[in-house]
Design goal:
- It is built from 16 helices and 14 strands.
- It has helices at 8-15, 28-37, 44-49, 55-65, 89-107, 126-135, 151-159, 208-217, 261-266, 280-288, 298-301, 310-321, 384-389, 403-410, 436-440, 448-455; strands spanning 21-24, 114-119, 140-144, 164-168, 170-171, 179-183, 200-205, 225-228, 271-274, 293-295, 326-330, 340-344, 366-369, 375-378.
- Strands 1-2-3-7-8-9-10 form a seven-stranded parallel sheet.
- Helix 8 (208-217) links the parallel strand 7 (200-205) and strand 8 (225-228).
Length: 467
């Protein structure tokens, strides 16, 4: 869905219907401090912060970022330092705090399970984000956009407050060399509490071979899979084989990109079907194929409780009702190199806006070995000169966009630049957005509970849905 579109409000609302609500873990630390700077209306973040076990981290966050009543007009957000391979304990604790509060609020007021979804490619914040979410009692961890081979074992170690590590992907390392991201909960505790509940781990996969590899060769217990097709929003797996493109410049997907659900079922683990899944008949078909249920994004992304700003949400819904939305699979928009779904509609506020190329959040940067042999970080969405200076190829910058800043703009936290310009949004959605007008049926808005009722109208007795 993007950054914080499936935030704590949406996950809480879905969980209250008896389904699994899932919060987005991408960029949570920046979302958290920007919410504080916007005044924390309703005091929800502060309520969650009161429960965080490391008081010093909560007090520091309040001192540095909280603005009673919000920022002054035209005042830019105060920035966090960008992640690097080695983070200070204070930086780790802020990341843990953000994840803890998001999960705490999603769990508040009911007894249902809540999950968190992370991008595998966004490596550096992964370990403290997972630990913070586990401190709040997260029940499921979902990870896609990469191969999360080590995560199951990481969850085992974090549940016992043990130190853990992830192999750090660095371009240009000498053969046989390795770099790691390390995290030790013991640094943050004088006396760790009893062990934590180990959340269930569901990798998000788009091929039978990846599911089989993770089930048989992962570092720990895999508890199931989310099987995602190329019609899903956000990042998509690239097509298999030599890429070809349609007349719109979108990558073509074929039979090789279709997951054989019978082979997934034979692995003996529960699985959920995602991508164009927002229809009751898809739930029926998934259950008949042996799935445990669906993962649904697009319908929830535009419901009342989602994190998309009201002006954007209402504008997109009105356009969808008129049949005037367009979802393109952009092969080059994302700095990750993965295809990325981008929404356009007549009132799109980003139309015609030229954004200054700058990378100041850095979640999608890639670590590289510089000419001096030291680690550096680059992003094809940053300025061309900076990227090339760090050893990147100029052609890799063509068409790239800053998803980090643009996705924050979608949820109402755009940065204000020195010249007074405001970061434009990039809205992402699955292909199902084109059919949202049929679901609306004349309505101008709807709730998360309306979505669940619609999806389970055929086979509600056996369903298990995911946001």
């Amino acid at each position: 869905m993007g950054v914080a579109v499936s935030g704590w409000r949406l996950a809480n609302a879905v969980a209250r219907t008896g389904q699994l609500g899932v919060v987005s873990g991408t960029g949570l630390d920046t979302v958290f401090v920007r919410r504080l700077q916007d005044g924390d209306e309703g005091g929800h973040l502060r309520r969650g912060m009161e429960q965080f076990p490391f008081r010093r981290a909560a007090d520091e966050a309040m001192s540095r970022y909280f603005r009673p009543g919000g920022r002054a007009p035209g005042e830019p957000y105060r920035m966090l330092s960008m992640y690097r391979q080695t983070s200070t304990p204070a930086r780790q604790e802020l990341t843990m705090l953000a994840a803890f509060v998001e999960v705490f609020l999603a769990k508040e007021g009911h007894d249902a399970d809540v999950g968190i979804n992370l991008l595998t490619k966004t490596q550096i914040p992964t370990l403290p984000t997972l630990y913070g979410a586990m401190l709040a009692g997260v029940a499921y961890v979902l990870m896609g956009a990469g191969i999360p081979r080590e995560i199951a074992g990481v969850l085992d170690l974090l549940a016992e407050h043990h130190a853990t590590q992830l192999r750090f992907e660095v371009e240009g390392l000498p053969a046989g060399a390795g770099e790691y991201l390390r995290f030790d909960p013991g640094v943050h505790w004088q006396t760790p509490p009893a062990h934590l509940a180990r959340p269930k781990f569901l990798p998000i996969v788009a091929s039978n071979s990846l599911a089989t590899m993770l089930a048989r060769k992962g570092s720990g217990r895999i508890d199931g899979f989310v099987i995602e097709g190329p019609t899903a929003g956000g990042h998509n797996a690239p097509p298999r084989g030599e890429p070809t493109f349609n007349e719109r410049g979108e990558p073509n997907y074929g039979e090789r990109d279709v997951v054989d659900l019978a082979k997934i079922r034979d692995l003996g683990l529960p699985f959920w079907v995602a991508g164009g899944a927002g229809h009751p008949e898809r739930l029926t078909a998934a259950l008949e194929a042996g799935a445990a249920g669906l993962q649904v994004g697009t319908l929830f992304a535009f419901c009342d409780e989602s994190g998309i700003t009201e002006p954007i949400k209402r504008s997109v819904l009105a356009a969808a009702a008129r049949g005037e939305v367009d979802v393109r699979t952009e092969p080059r928009a994302s700095p990750t190199g993965y295809p990325f779904k981008v929404v356009d509609w007549p009132e799109n506020p980003a139309r015609g806006v030229t954004r200054e190329r700058i990378c100041d959040l850095g979640y999608l940067r890639v670590a590289v070995v510089g000419a001096d042999g030291k680690l550096d970080y680059r992003c094809p969405g940053e300025s061309e000169d900076a990227y090339v200076k760090k050893g990147g190829k100029l052609e890799d910058t063509i068409g790239r966009q800053c998803l980090c800043n643009s996705l924050l703009a979608v949820i109402g936290h755009p940065q204000i630049r020195a010249d007074g310009s405001v970061e434009p949004p990039i809205v992402t959605s699955g292909d199902d957005l084109a059919h949202l007008g049929d679901f609306l049926g004349g309505r101008t808005n709807y709730s998360a509970a309306d979505v669940v009722a619609y999806l389970t109208s055929c086979r509600c007795e056996a369903s298990a849905g995911l946001t």
